[in-house]
Each structure stands twice: as structure tokens, then as C-alpha cells.
Specification:
The chain is mainly alpha-helical. 64% of the residues lie in helices and 4% in strands. A hairpin with a 2-residue loop joins strand 3 and strand 4. The longest helix is centred in the C-terminal third of the chain and has 22 residues. It is globular.
Length: 314
């Protein structure tokens, strides 16, 4: 009935979530009603909105469900910051406007998450364990990174400028960090998830900028992980998805240099900093260190490394 959304406005969002999870199609009549009633969504608590949004991000092909939220007028009800994204051209280095690039970045993020063995064959197990980490109830690194993928360039609208005919977005990473902190607060995210969003947004250009160098020093890698900790892994994945989502005809050859750099960063982190090599014991070892971290027995990278060495002495 037409009053179903008046009784509980969260049903507006839940309709998309059920469609995402079950692969059912929302009826045209229901879609028209959702568009009419979309403004009611903000009457729901933000905790409930957050929970439904992350269930949608958890579903396969989340990028399509984000597009559906947009077509129904629900996405910019939750995220009014995106209102001008479709009108924001990104210049000669991008084939997509800001909105389409954001959606495409989610698509490539999902492709990488579902196929670590293709992109990172030397670190498949440890990456799966990393992104399966639950940061808070129903929010895992593997669904949070999809939200970050969508929001990573949120600072571009406010920083767009022209240098002759060239489009610039100077400082958009720092401006985006503040915007995304505001969004995280609105969504009632906990401390850990807010930290990851801010950290990855602020640093998402670092790897792309470093990739322009002829050689990346050990010091640069060390500084990257010193500043980011294990959130650097999320940032590396985003960097690859961001690069893949730039052109309509991006192929493996174009992104091969960036992929090689990211693989090298992962090797440095897991093998040199953490002392982890792929193998049948890796899951057990990382589960032990995570449990030790939860119990407060370790709190630093050095302590984790010492624990791993004691478990697997050379």
C-alpha cells in the first residue's frame, strides 16, 4: 500500500537491500512510490540507515545497487555531498565524470576483492584475512573499502581549478578527508571505521604519485606504512582500483606499472616488515596475532612481528 513507507521509512532502503541480496527486481510501481517518498528516509535513525547501507555494500555487484539507490533518489538523500558529481568533469586524464568514476572504482574494487589470486598471487591468503577483519558490528574492511572507493574523490568538487585548459584538483585528498569524516560521523560509524576512512582518503594519491618515480626507495615504502599502518593495505587496493577506473578502455598493459609497484609494496609490508610468507600456516599465524591484539597482548607492529617470529622461528 502507499502507506507502507510512511509507517517505516527505512523500508525505502530495505527494498533495495532485499533486491540486492535476493536478486529480485523491484516493481515499477514500487520504484515510483520510493521516488515520491524518498525524503522520508532521513526520518529513520542513522544507525539503521548505516546498517542497511553496509548490507547493500556487502552484496555482490554492489556498484549496481549504488546506481539503483541513485536512480531512486535515495543515494543523495543519504549523501547530499554527491549532488554535483555528475556535472563535475575531471579533465583530460579521465574519461568519466566524478560520479561515474566513483561507481567504476567500486566495480574494480569488487573485482580485486573477489580475485586476489589474479592481481596478487603471492599474497592471496593474507589479503583475504586482512579484508575479512570486522571493524565493528557488520562493518568489515571488505565492505568499508567499497564505501571509501565511492567517496575517495569527494574533495574534487571544492578544489577544481584550471591551469590554462588543464583541470586541477590540488589538495582534494585533504579536503576529501574532512568531507568523509563528516559523512562517517553522520553514519554513526565507530572509531576504527572512521579512522580507516580518513586515513585512506587522505593518502589515496600517495602511491599514484610515487608511481611516477623511476625508482621507489625503501625509505618511501617504510614511511608509507609508518604513516598508515595496516590501513596502507586498503590504500594500495584503492590505488589500483582508482587507476583502473580512469579510462573506458583501460587494459592490463596500461596499469601494469602501477600493479607492479603495489605488488612490491605488499611484498615489503608482509615479508620484510611483518615477516610473513604465504603458506598453509599463514591463516593460523594471523588469527593468533589478531586474537592477541584483541586481548591487548600486542599493540604495535613490532610486537606483532616478534610474536610471529616466536611462532615461526627461522
Amino acid at each position: 500500500s502507499s502507506g507502507v513507507f510512511d509507517d517505516d521509512s527505512l523500508r525505502l532502503l530495505r527494498a533495495v537491500r532485499i533486491s540486492a541480496v535476493t536478486n529480485f527486481t523491484i516493481e515499477d510501481k514500487t520504484e515510483r512510490l520510493i521516488r515520491q517518498k524518498k525524503g522520508l528516509l532521513v526520518d529513520s535513525s542513522w544507525e539503521r540507515i548505516r546498517d542497511e547501507l553496509f548490507l547493500i555494500l556487502d552484496a555482490p555487484h554492489a556498484f549496481r545497487h549504488i546506481e539503483k539507490l541513485d536512480s531512486l533518489g535515495l543515494l543523495n538523500t543519504i549523501l547530499p555531498e554527491i549532488n554535483s558529481w555528475k556535472d563535475t568533469d575531471q579533465g583530460e586524464y579521465h574519461d568519466y565524470n566524478l560520479f561515474d568514476h566513483a561507481v567504476k572504482t567500486i566495480e574494480f574494487t569488487e573485482a580485486i576483492l573477489s580475485n586476489f589470486s589474479e592481481y596478487f598471487p603471492d599474497h592471496t591468503s593474507v589479503l583475504k584475512i586482512h579484508f575479512d577483519e570486522e571493524l565493528e558490528r557488520n562493518i568489515y574492511r571488505n565492505n568499508l573499502i567499497k564505501l571509501i572507493a565511492f567517496l575517495h574523490d569527494s574533495g574534487k568538487v571544492g578544489t577544481k581549478s584550471y591551469d590554462g585548459e588543464k583541470v586541477r584538483f590540488l589538495g582534494h585528498d585533504r579536503v576529501g578527508e574532512e568531507i568523509n569524516k563528516t559523512i562517517a560521523k553522520r553514519l554513526k560509524l565507530g572509531h576504527k571505521a572512521r579512522r580507516v576512512i580518513a586515513n585512506v582518503t587522505k593518502n589515496h594519491m600517495r602511491v599514484l604519485n610515487l608511481s611516477k618515480s623511476t625508482k621507489i626507495s625503501q625509505r618511501a615504502k617504510s614511511r608509507f606504512f609508518r604513516d598508515m599502518g595496516k590501513d596502507g593495505i586498503d590504500c594500495l587496493l584503492l590505488s589500483l582500483a582508482d587507476g583502473l577506473a580512469t579510462r573506458t578502455d583501460t587494459d592490463a598493459g596500461q596499469t601494469a606499472p602501477l600493479l607492479a609497484i603495489i605488488q612490491d609494496f605488499l611484498r615489503y609490508y608482509f615479508e620484510e616488515l611483518m615477516g610473513i610468507l604465504e603458506g598453509k600456516e599463514v591463516g593460523r599465524m594471523l588469527s593468533i596475532t589478531r586474537e592477541a591484539e584483541i586481548e591487548g597482548l600486542i599493540s604495535t607492529k613490532e610486537e606483532a612481528k616478534d610474536l610471529l617470529k616466536s611462532l615461526n622461528p627461522l
